[in-house]
């Protein structure tokens, strides 16, 4: 996995997190496996366990687009993106 690909992937992830300002349960279209994985990860982390790299689940493109459009409509002057340099991302990834 190249550094450029990793940097781009993490930047996309950060953008999606910013775009998803609120959790709207009625708009969630995760399948049962994704929901179960998310609940298991949340429960594990709530119990003080550490991240192991399997956290999260894919977000359907349509749902990500809906969240992005809603964020932009509700926050026209809000943050559009964050930028983290390679050294910052590498420092985060280097943590246990």
Binned, the helix content reads 55-70%
Assembly context of the chains: single chain
Q: What is the arithmetic mean of pLDDT?
A: 75
Question: Any idea what the shape is?
Answer: globular
Characterize the main sheet.
Answer: none
Q: Structural class of the secondary structure composition? A: mainly alpha
* SSE ordering: HHHH
- Quantity of strands, as a count: 0
Low-confidence runs: 21-26
Number of helices: 4
Distance, first to last CA: 19 Å
Describe what this molecule looks like in 3D.
By secondary structure, the chain is mainly alpha-helical. The protein has one domain. The chain is 56% helix and 0% strand. The protein contains four helices and no strands. It is globular. The model is unreliable at 21-26 (pLDDT under 50).
How are the SSEs ordered, and which strands pair?
Layout (H helix, E strand, L loop, with lengths): L2 H17 L12 H15 L14 H14 L11 H8 L3
Q: What attributes characterize this protein structure?
A:
mainly alpha; single chain; 4 helices; 96 residues; 0% strand
